[in-house]
Each structure stands twice: as C-alpha cells, then as structure tokens.
Fold this sequence. Notes:
Elements: E1 4-11, H1 15-26, E2 31-34, H2 42-46, E3 53-56, E4 64-65, H3 72-78, H4 81-90, E5 95-97, E6 102-105, H5 110-122, E7 126-128, E8 133-139, E9 142-147, E10 150-159, H6 174-181, E11 186-192, E12 196-197, H7 201-208, E13 213-220, E14 223-232, E15 235-237, H8 239-245, E16 254-257, H9 264-274, H10 280-284, H11 290-300, H12 314-325, E17 327-329, E18 333-334, E19 342-347, E20 365-367, E21 375-376, H13 381-394
Parallel strand pairs: 1-2, 1-10, 2-7, 10-20
Antiparallel strand pairs: 3-6, 4-21, 5-6, 8-9, 9-10, 11-19, 12-15, 12-18, 13-14, 13-16, 14-15, 16-17
The chain binds flavin-adenine dinucleotide.
Flavin-adenine dinucleotide binds near residues 35, 52 and 383.
Amino acid sequence: MSGKSYDVIVLGGGAAGLFCAFIAGQRGRSVLVLEGSNKVGKKILMSGGGRCNFTNLDIQPENYLSANPHFVKSALNGYTQWQFIEMVERYQIPYHEKSHGELFCDDSAKDILKMLVAECDLAKVAIKAKCTINKIVAEEGAYYVKTSQGGFRSRSLVIATGGLSIPTMGASGFGYEVAEQFGLGILPRRAGLVPFMFTDKLKEICERLSGVSVDVVMSVNGISFRENLLFSHRGISGPVALQISSYWLPGQSVDVNLLPDTDIIGMLLDFKEKKGRSLLRNLLAQHFSRGLVLELQELFWANYMDYAIAEIPDAALADIASNLSCWQIKPSGTEGYRTAEVTLCGVDTIHLSSKTMECKTQSGLFFIGEVMDVTGHLGGYNFQWAWASGYAAGSYA
Ligand SMILES: Cc1cc2nc3c(=O)[nH]c(=O)nc-3n(C[C@H](O)[C@H](O)[C@H](O)COP(=O)(O)OP(=O)(O)OC[C@H]3O[C@@H](n4cnc5c(N)ncnc54)[C@H](O)[C@@H]3O)c2cc1C
C-alpha cells in the first residue's frame, strides 16, 4: 500500500504523543502526529483547573497503580521531573508549588501546550489534526495507516491515544482496539480519580452540605489518603475522594476519619468533665461547620440530640467517637468517565519493554501514556508518566 513515508507515526497528539514526537524528531527522525480532534493537547488545556499540574517534586513508583508496579521505574528514572522542570524554566514559564509538591503554571496550561508545540516545530514534527484513522496494517516491517487525510507509512508506530475519560475532549477506545488487533491483552478498565455518588440518605446529606469541605483521612483496601473532602450536590469529591476512588471497587465502603489528629474519645470525655452542661453539637462546632455538625448529629447521636454532654453515657460517647473516626460510607458508584481524570488499567504492560515501551512481540509498535496499565495518583503524576513514557519511546522509535 502506498502513502507518504515517515520514520515514526504517533497516533494521538496529547501529552505523551507530542512529547514522544519531538524527542524522536530531535534524533533526526521524520515524525508525523495524527490527532483525531480539531486541536492537539485539549486535555492539557483543561488540566489542573486550567493551570496544568505538570509534575510533582516527589515522584516515586509508589505513586502509580499498575498490575506490574515495577514497570514504571525505568522510564521514570530515564526522564525525571527535574528534566521537565528544567524545560519549563528554559521556556520561562512561571510556576509555583501548590501543596504536596504539586507544580502548577502561574498563568495558564496554555503555556505548557505552547512549549510542547514549539518543541515539535523545532524538531520539524508534522502534525495533522481532525484526522480519522480508519485502518492500520502491518506489512513488510512497516506500518500503513489509512486515514481521512490519506495513507501514511512508517517503520515505527506509537499509540498515544490516551484513555476513556472525558469523551467530549476526544477520548476514544482506539488504542485498545489497536492493542487487540496485535494480540495484546487489556486489563479491565474503570474510571479513576473520579467523584463518588450515592443513592442512600447520603445523597441528600451531600446536597445539603454542597460546598462544605473538611480535612479528613479516607481509607479503602488498606490504602489511606489525607486531604480535603468536598461535599457537592452530586456526591463526594475533593482530592481525598479522587485519590481513594482509584483504589475503590464497586460494592465496597470507604472509611472516613473526620478528626485525624484527635484522640476523639479523649476529647469527648474531656468535654464531659469540663463542659458538662454544653450540648455536643456546640462543642463539635469548634471543629466542623455548623451544617456538618447537624448532619453528624442526625446520623450519630440523634437519641441524645438535646442532652447536655454530662447526661450522655460514656459508652454512647465511645460509639459517637468511633463513628467520627471511622464513618463508613458506601458509594453507589462513581461519576464514571464523564468526569474522571484518568482510566485505570488498560494495555497490559507485560507485553511492553519497560525501557522503550515497544511491544515485545510486534517490532516497531509502541504504547505510551494513559492507554497502558499505568495510572498515577492525583498531583501531577499522570503528566510525569506521559512525559517519561513519551521520552522512552521517542528515544527508540
Ligand atoms: C479534567 C482533567 C484534569 C487533569 N488534570 C491533570 C493534572 O493537572 N495533572 C496531571 O498529571 N494529570 C491530569 N489529568 C490527567 C492527564 O490529562 C492525562 O493522564 C494525560 O493527558 C494522559 O496523556 P496521554 O497523552 O496518554 O492522553 P491524552 O492527553 O488524553 O491524549 C490522547 C490524544 O489522543 C487523541 N485521540 C484519541 N483517540 C484518537 C483516535 N482514534 N485517533 C486520533 N487521535 C485520537 C485525543 O484526542 C488526545 O488528543 C487530568 C485529566 C482530566 C480529564
């Protein structure tokens, strides 16, 4: 089959695809990026609330979920957060650390996309947007890609089409179809970094508390995170809920410690001794918003609502303390791919070289970024994976 030839064709002009493209271009490879939507890098523009949390000061393999937790090590060492920060500084992009080592642009995520596109221009990478890919054929040691804009051939084909989250931003299952075409396994996918929803009485509580945020520890399956929980009219969100959602499985409850720094029973008994005539709700209002206290009262001490704390038996206070330190809530589900930041699981890394991202059984075929079974925590880890896996493939493709 005929078509214009390149050394490398990258499918998907997102974070990983653009990065890989200019790294390969810098090596003198001729590179073509084929992007399905009308513009490259749309998800970068919407990331980090428009300011792109582009990396983190503390990147560890433990910040990633994958069936093979060791897989990320080589690529993360091969291209570090310090190298990306150096590039951001070279482009004089103003940035700041928000919290937990998370680095954000001061002005706009546009700065990061402009930098990636500028690097692609310098490396003479050709980019075609609004390009529908119809077919991929492997023939005579090369790949033929048939598209709405004609046919193209290359020795190396890099799949960087991302995951399933935010379909309105161009997300598609295309990368998984390519993996299947070449016989690669796909681990069952689900939405990650996504808010929880409820159908029981918690649904109404969330609606009433919409906008209230509280610093908590949330835990599931032996994993805990401490950050803000945010009630919304749809359910529970905020960084702590998003982090835990990646570890949660349908049907499970999650535990919420509402006062992680406090010996709660000690505090309640102390109240009882020193402020026995006070109502518990007035005492807890020192720690939580009034609205949250009223909801907790309804849930945990409705029988003692108008009792002075001195009149509440110690055993009942112990129950209240245990509920405040381990509030078990059972989500009915998550908001799904519509709002999820990432897709968990994906192309099984068992088929890929951790050094190059090349498929072990299909020479010249590479998978990078979110399409594969590597998912980062919230906090810039997913972009660092896009840069690092893009760098690994771009150095060999
Ligand atoms: C709202 C939101 C905010 C986020 N904020 C952050 C953040 O601040 N920090 C962070 O680290 N991570 C963040 N993420 C996650 C991060 O955006 C992704 O992990 C990262 O973009 C993955 O890079 P990628 O190149 O693999 O995929 P993408 O960036 O999704 O790129 C894939 C590209 O492939 C294109 N494509 C898809 N199908 C086809 C097809 N059939 N043909 C051609 N092209 C196709 C898509 O249009 C897209 O341009 C956020 C995600 C979301 C949804």
